[in-house]
Amino acid sequence: MGGEYVPGDRLPREEDLAATFWVSRGVVREIVRALEERGLVVVRHGVGAIVADRARWNVLDPQVLPAILRGPDATARIIQTIEHQRLIEGRLAELAAQRLDGAAAQTLELSLRRLRESVDAPLMSVFRPALAEVHRTLIVAANHPMLAITAIPVSEALAGLDEPPTVPSLARAVAAILNGRPVAARSRIDEHLRGLEARLVGER
């Protein structure tokens, strides 16, 4: 994902990787197995580990997608990922505004309050999990598990890149959901994600 190896390339032999990174061959085998489970490599007997075609990669894996979004072609991947999220989370925000019950509303309000409190935290390690939690709570409130399967990992990966200026636009989306305004909720999430794209792409 970092660009050193491209699809079709063969990874170095176990013993070479072990020597390079000062680890045992057993550790190398575990790492290659983890890569294979995520669709990143194909292991062929007598050949070794081959970098898989991108179409095989499990891009929703919580370790794979963040790495892709920080990779050598990050700009194109960020644009594509946000385009996906605008379609999916936008629809989920619309559904949440229609289906929100009292318990879900309280949970959403609480997550937004925690996010606002985290803005003053000195570390992104406090802010970004709070941001991810607002998105997760919003998504779950839509009560659409199939869409949530793709929306949650993508929202978490994007939250890992975001910063405090994102809070006002997300708060407007939450307000539209809490007020039962589906069209406005979808529009506000779209506005929020477009703003994120502008910040991320503008930084590169």
Q: What are the defining features of this structure?
A:
204 residues, mainly alpha, Arc Repressor Mutant, subunit A, Four Helix Bundle (Hemerythrin (Met), subunit A), 2 domains, two-stranded antiparallel sheet, elongated
> For the terminal residues, how far apart are their CA atoms?
18 Å
Give the overall average pLDDT.
Answer: 93
User: Helices and strands, in N-to-C order?
Assistant: HHEEHHHHHHH
Which strands sit side by side, in order, in the main sheet? 1-2
- Please count the helical segments: 9
3D structure, described in words:
The chain has 204 residues and is mainly alpha-helical. The protein folds into two domains: 43 residues, Winged helix-like DNA-binding domain superfamily/Winged helix DNA-binding domain (Arc Repressor Mutant, subunit A, Orthogonal Bundle), CATH 1.10.10.10; 139 residues, Four Helix Bundle (Hemerythrin (Met), subunit A), CATH 1.20.120.530. The chain has a two-stranded antiparallel sheet with strand order 1-2. β1 and β2 form a beta hairpin. The chain is elongated. The mean pLDDT is 93.
